From TrEMBL:
Residue ranges the record marks as coiled coil: none
GO cellular component, one term: cell junction
Gene3D superfamilies: 4.10.640.30, YVTN repeat-like/Quinoprotein amine dehydrogenase (2.130.10.10)
InterPro entries for this protein: DDB2, WD40/YVTN_repeat-like_dom_sf, WD40_repeat_CS, WD40_repeat_dom_sf, WD40_rpt
Domain of life, per lineage: Eukaryota
Protein family per UniProt: Belongs to the WD repeat DDB2/WDR76 family.
Keywords, ordered alphabetically: Acetylation, Chromosome, DNA damage, DNA repair, DNA-binding, Nucleus, Phosphoprotein, Repeat, Ubl conjugation, Ubl conjugation pathway, WD repeat
Pathway: Protein modification; protein ubiquitination
GO annotation, biological process: cellular response to UV; DNA damage response; DNA repair; nucleotide-excision repair; protein autoubiquitination; protein polyubiquitination; pyrimidine dimer repair; response to UV
Record-given protein name: DNA damage-binding protein 2
Amino acid sequence: MAPKKCPETQKSPDVAVLLKSKSRRSPQELEPEAKKLFVQGPVSSRKCESCCLLAELSSLQIPPRSSSIVRDLYQQKLGKATWPSLQQGLQKSFLHSLASYRVFQKAAPFDRRTTSLAWHPTHPSTLAVGSKGGDIMIWNFGIKDKPIFLKGIGAGGSITGLKFNHLNTNQFFASSMEGTTRLQDFKGNILRIYTSSNSCKVWFCSLDVSAKSRVVVTGDNMGHVILTNTDGKELWNLRMHKKKVAHVALNPCCDWLLATASIDQTVKIWDLRQIKGKDSFLFSLPHRHPVNSACFSPDGARLLTTDQNNEIRVYSASQWDSPLSLISHPHRHFQHLTPIKATWHSRHNLIVVGRYPDPNLKSCVPYELRTIDVFDGSSGKMMCQLYDPGYSGITSLNEFNPMGDTLASTMGYHILIWSPEEDGSLKDHERL
């Protein structure tokens, strides 16, 4: 007998909720796990709510597999298919593969929550992760060797930004609440300090680097943005926002284009070649709430912003001052939670972001799961949701590696690695 449909539970036919298992299980087999999710509410209502969740899970559909990729490639070679149509077919195929993604590696090396992560630019199974205590781990999860662990100062040392050095991939840049932006090697040696506040009241909240132009840009909690070259010479230091600069990003294709996001509820776009003062921005993009991040798409043509409440925006280079799409999404700010930041997929026009269900939103459903949500970058439509009942916390940071086939997530103290089920075949004793 089919479970009863609960009227207040909304169904999203284009969403795939992924459960941790080596084979697809029936709703009857999932029932014990689903019931475990409900730890609140009257005892008499739990059975009903369990049935509602099972009905929703069993009715969710997976995006259809594209059966014409080879045909599209052949047609494109003959000049009969356009590149955008080929990209769309490849994206559909990737979305179908997401149905097999699960957590196959995990690590919890820190005594404080994770605050930043960065993928190695050339090694697809290596990433750097920073913590609120200033610890940094360089982890190659593809080998059994122990990760490289660099001890921080503890309280007050939070790592706010990480970037590998493209000119020497055994080095990385880091900004921190300790009051520095610096270059380090994998042994922990500080090779160069780019900015130093020399004050416990001023710290650095974000950074980005251009290997082509050889510049480092960083923002602080007082609204200043500082540009230096990679040799350590300061080019300028300007107060560009009224409050903390939560994120800075250089355009990957036009690295003279800079985006800065602030808790003063604005995102600003600058031309580094024409900056003369705080009012010399190209565009100012007002938001309704403080902004956690602003990042350019891999092709540099779009800008993705995440506020501190329930809105994700996509802007286009054709019209920077007007959002292309507004996505309603719960990810509200909480003092003891690493700010949630949406990111672009490294290969496809997709947006990845962790969900923090908000009961105050009309769209919230009973016992809403803390999923990782994947949206189409053009339409803003929800395409897929990743979820593993073994790791049901809030994922603040989610980034795909440069190859686009592996996802890293940070959830409190934990670092999670998601991969297709057929690739994630490590045995339990081989995991961290």
